Amino acid sequence: MLEHYCPGSASLRKDITLTIKSCPECGSDVELFSIDKKVACDTCGFVVYNNLQSCIQWCRYAEQCVGEDVYRDMMGKPKAS
Q1: Residue-by-residue pLDDT tens, the chain, 81 positions
Q2: E strands within 10-77?
Q3: How many domains does the chain have?
Q4: Does 80 fall in a domain?
Q5: Cα-flanking dihedrals φ and ψ of residue 22, to 5°?
Q6: Which domain does 36 fall in, by range?
């Protein structure tokens, strides 16, 4: 990873927050961490999205900046074998 990071990626590397959303399908609580793109409701399986917009979607240094695991997870890419 890079030694210096852009300010826009700081919240992706630390200060992970938890938000409780209500499932639009059944009304159950769904826990979404700030690094989650989507989470399935434990009660009904409905997929709740986090509406996360980030510089990793367009920055050419994103993978180096936040690390391979966070980058692949947020971009929906499978882990390298």
Answers
A1: 556 666 666 666 666 788 898 888 899 999 988 878 788 999 999 888 776 556 777 678 888 888 888 888 877 777 665
A2: 18-22, 29-33, 38-40, 47-49
A3: 1
A4: no
A5: -90, 130
A6: 7-75
